[in-house]
Design goal:
binds calcium ion; about 325 residues; 18 helices; 4 strands; about 60% helix; two-stranded antiparallel sheet; mainly alpha
Length: about 325
């Protein structure tokens, strides 16, 4: 069975750490990397579906919909469609869908920052100091056996997470007082949203994928980041072969067989790529039964599982997740 490793790595990791340290771990970009940037290449079915739901609903809402019965998912989707159709002409067009996706993504980030800001700063002070954050998130480490701190689980260790957060905190801390105001804290939690955090995002990505620590990404490391061979795989699936070609042809611009930081940057943060627009086009393409490049409510509802999850659509994935634990 194919396993979309990276997705579950994060799930497992967050599961582990959340169970110990409240719900305050900053989200790393694993799991999103491939989804964010390669969904248009139609990787695995489950993969892009989950991604589509998160783009369309925002991560929190996507989880909520996953729990709903199909009829209830469709009903709520109908209400959303009326909201998206801002000019009320009965069609959802590209610009309306794009505006909606931008709205849900912004809302998700704002909600996430609000939640974490409150959790680390219940008195609502102007700033959070690193020591406070570290104690909240990593305080449990003081009680742990040093060997356990360094033990890697799927490539992660608590110690490495702490080191990474420390560095990220310092970069987000624009005025260098080791405390973050809310805006700095937003950059810390969602570095992909801030221009000045992007080189750090690239470095973190390279470090994640670069298993032999030579500072660059080989094709095997690149593939290993999205696909893990298991015993009952007889042959590599088509999308993996396709990814190998993509590595050679597009990602490795100077054709030296490796991705350096610049090449990784162009991969994960392509400068001329508009996510919301690409995702909107993709969703329209998936549901546009009469090919007039806009969607009626009927078209959207008849493809509801493209836009939102439900117990039915996510049942298979839940099983996969379950056996990972
Ligand atoms: Ca409209
Ligand atoms: Ca500061
Ligand atoms: Ca390497
Ligand atoms: Ca290269």
């Amino acid at each position: 069975m194919i396993k979309m490793i990276r997705n579950y790595q994060v799930v497992i990791f967050l599961f582990t750490i959340i169970s110990i340290a409240a719900s305050a771990v900053p989200k790393t970009e694993e799991g999103k990397r491939v989804l964010d940037h390669d969904f248009q290449q139609h990787l695995g079915e489950e993969h892009s579906k989950q991604y589509d739901h998160e783009q369309f609903l925002g991560e929190d809402q996507a989880k909520t919909f996953d729990q709903l019965a199909p009829e209830e998912s469709r009903r709520r989707l109908g209400i959303i469609v009326d909201k998206i159709d801002t000019n009320k002409d009965g069609f959802v067009d590209l610009s309306e869908l794009k505006a909606w996706i931008q709205f849900t993504q912004r809302r998700y980030i704002e909600d996430d920052v609000e939640r974490q800001w409150r959790s680390h700063n219940p008195d609502n002070n102007d700033t959070i100091h690193w020591d406070v954050y570290r104690k909240n998130v990593y305080g449990f480490m003081e009680e742990m056996d040093p060997a356990d701190l360094e033990r890697e689980d799927n490539g992660f260790s608590y110690k490495a997470m702490l080191t990474r957060d420390r560095r990220r905190w310092s970069v987000a801390d624009r005025d260098g007082d080791d405390s973050l105001v809310r805006e700095e804290f937003t950059s810390f939690l969602h570095p992909e949203e801030s221009e000045f955090m992007r080189d750090l995002v690239v470095s973190e990505t390279v470090e994640d994928i670069d298993k032999d620590n030579d500072g660059k990404i080989s094709v095997e490391e690149y593939i290993g980041d999205m696909y893990r061979v298991t015993d009952d795989d007889t042959e590599e699936p088509e999308w993996v072969k396709h990814e190998r070609e993509t590595f050679k042809t597009f990602r490795d611009k100077d054709h030296d067989g490796f991705l350096n930081n610049e090449e990784v940057k162009e991969w994960i943060i392509p400068h001329d790529f508009d996510h919301a627009e690409a995702e909107s086009k993709h969703l329209i393409y998936e549901a546009d039964a009469d090919s007039d490049e806009k969607l009626t409510k009927e078209e959207i509802l008849s493809k509801y599982d493209v836009f939102v999850g439900s117990q039915a659509t996510d049942f298979g994935e839940a099983l996969v997740r379950h056996d990972e634990f």
